[in-house]
């Protein structure tokens, strides 16, 4: 990296189509936070955008197709921009084992892409070893794809609960897929066994949130990454907030989790 300064793109740059925010208090924090979401035109992606903005590009990404490079750049660009606005020094956002960006000390965060959309969250934390956040954004899944993956994503009771709430089948599968992805991202740091779509089961839904019961296996294998001892089970259920982005025809979900002290 030639210098340590992040350079945002001009507001009229054709790669950036639109930027907006999802506001939430997560149900746990003492104030609202903004979660940036942006729409990009991948036709205007060029490799030089990494150099122009000073966003780090790993070797593995340089060998990817342009679509993958554009997605990668969009997410890391939003993270770097948000960190700058929060007053953090610019740094190389090296990919961690799960491919998420390695954030500065005292920060938890998450990142997601779907087609031409990217969203991120960067949350300053006084106890980043014990809290986490996961986000996901997912365009509405087509009926054909829903028929292929529906049984993998959810069980019959979960779909039925969604339909009773007023959703059509494709909306139910899409939201459940997105919420369970957000849960995975929020819990992966703390759970010592493999997480899958069956690890969380929908138990309620309202206009803003979906609540899931977690399997007993997940509860018993939640560990503190500080002491490496089994944490007290405050993980019997988790809640995801969600919004439907009508213009983009996509669901956005966010899940916050904090270990017991």
Calculate Rg over CA atoms. Answer: 19 Å
With strands numbered from the N-terminus, the spatial order across the biggest sheet is: 5-9-8-7-6
Distance between the termini: 39 Å
SS-based structural class?
Answer: alpha+beta
Would you give an account of this structure?
It is a single chain. The protein has 261 residues and is an alpha+beta fold. The protein has a 5-stranded antiparallel sheet with strand order 5-9-8-7-6. Helices cover 29% and strands 28% of the residues. Mean pLDDT is 87; it is low at 228-233. The chain is globular, with a radius of gyration of 19 Å. β1 and β2 form a beta hairpin.
Question: How would you concisely characterize the structure shown here?
Answer:
By secondary structure, the chain is of the alpha+beta class. It has helices at 48-53, 59-62, 66-85, 143-153, 156-165, 169-187, 216-220; strands at 16-24, 33-40, 107-114, 117-124, 131-139, 200-205, 209-214, 237-245, 250-258. Helices cover 29% and strands 28% of the residues.
